[in-house]
Write a structure and sequence with these properties.
Elements: E1 4-9, H1 19-33, E2 37-44, E3 59-64, H2 78-81, H3 86-92, E4 99-102, E5 120-123, H4 128-138, H5 142-162, E6 168-171, H6 174-181, E7 187-189, E8 209-212, H7 218-232, E9 239-243, H8 248-254, E10 260-264, H9 268-277, E11 280-283, H10 293-301, E12 304-307, H11 309-312, E13 322-323, H12 327-338, H13 344-358, H14 360-370
Parallel strand pairs: 1-2, 1-4, 2-3, 4-5, 5-6, 6-7, 8-9, 8-11, 9-10, 11-12, 12-13
Length: about 375
């Protein structure tokens, strides 16, 4: 009997060009390859509807988020209540297929009494309460800081009360898995889904060090400023900062330094080429929860990876990277690998390690087996 599944995505998952939507898209694509008939429900949030999704889904429905400021007064988190949608609930009730909630953002209906007897699976992309607390710590705007702190507290309360209604929780990293297992039953570790089917790394040397990420995300922008101040200005070799939606302050900062260049809103193929041609992919984060998909891309496509501990903590990828935290140690790690060739043996080590842990089809089998 062919398996059917409702997937609720917090955003339109195509194009798969940032963070969580990458994992959503390649998760549903792998489930499609396994023969699952998918009904996709997704929220329109700064992205256009996509016919590409029709290749992998029997039906695709789009919903507007309710961004009314009144929702800020609700006891539920804004990221959840703004996605509370009656037509979505009505469509879920048209059959008895299992439901996969991609992200805590999509869980407005998880505890609904009409869905009490449905098989419900929640894919967590972060410990969201911690993520929003970290955003508050990084935020300098007073009103935004208040919002992030309030949202963090609401998310903690919502997770505790609501996730108990899930039959299964799919955590995205070993750290997150341990955290959720302390609080809930039936928690499974399912690594992030990603666009890489095979390791595709060039031997030899590259000519620059690359830092990349969605620069509209505060953690990434702050990391870029930190690296420019403490690393890039200390070593006079070529550095490239690349990513989506750079703030003007970062553009102005890069212009001060001739050996640093900024590439904004490049296509996915251009980003893949930047990663592959770099000698070093330098990845830095101030927040350790979730799984950093940009790290996976760098390991599948790039040569040497220099990272801080928060980027790789308990991911199983520590041995594939050069790990350092203090600026002087990061500088030393960069200087040590600058003169080295990336060899065939190093490529084979990456191949064995990554394919053992991060095969999309293998990991999608976990979800597949949970679907009744």
């Amino acid at each position: 009997m062919q398996k059917r599944l409702h997937i609720i995505s917090f955003n339109i998952p195509y194009p798969a060009n940032y963070g969580g939507v990458i994992s959503v898209f390649y998760h549903l694509k792998a489930l499609h390859q396994l023969g699952v008939k998918i009904t996709l429900h997704c929220y329109e949030y700064g992205r256009e509807q996509s016919t590409e999704l029709n290749k992998y889904c029997e039906r695709v429905f789009y919903y507007k988020r309710n961004m009314s400021p009144v929702n800020l007064l609700n006891k539920k988190p804004f990221i959840v209540i703004s996605r509370n949608n009656k037509p979505l609930l009505e469509r879920l009730l048209e059959d008895d297929a299992p439901i996969l909630y991609e992200g805590i953002h999509t869980c407005a209906t998880l505890a609904h009494p009409h869905l009490k007897h449905r098989l419900k699976i929640v894919r967590t992309h972060n410990i969201e309460a911690d993520y929003y607390a970290n955003l508050a710590n990084l935020e300098s705007n007073f009103l935004k800081k208040i919002y992030f702190n309030r949202e963090s507290k609401k998310l903690r309360n919502f997770e505790e009360k609501t996730l108990q209604h899930a039959n299964h929780i799919l955590a995205i990293s070993p750290n997150d898995t341990a955290w959720f297992r302390e609080r809930f039953k039936h928690v499974h570790y399912v690594p992030a889904f990603h666009p890489n089917e095979e390791v595709d790394i060039l031997e030899g040397k590259g000519k620059y060090t690359l830092f990349h990420g969605d620069l509209s995300v505060k953690d990434n922008a702050n990391a870029a400023f930190f690296l420019i101040k403490n690393i890039f200005t200390k070593i006079k070799t070529p550095f490239i900062v690349a990513g989506l939606n750079s703030p003007n302050t970062l553009i102005q900062e890069v212009e001060k330094h001739p050996h640093i260049s900024l590439k904004i809103n490049v296509s996915q193929s251009e980003m893949d080429d930047l990663i592959q041609q770099a000698h070093i992919n330098l990845l830095y984060t101030f927040h350790s929860s979730g799984m950093k998909l940009k790290l996976l891309n760098a390991l599948y496509r790039g040569r040497f990876c220099v990272v801080n501990s928060a980027m790789v903590q308990n991911t199983g990828m520590e041995t594939l990277c050069h790990v350092a935290d203090m600026p002087n140690d990061l500088i030393r790690a960069i200087q040590e690998v600058q003169c080295l060739d990336f060899t065939e043996n190093l490529i084979e080590k990456r191949h064995q390690s990554l394919n053992n842990q991060f095969s999309n089809l293998t990991n999608a089998q976990i979800t597949y087996k949970l679907i009744a």
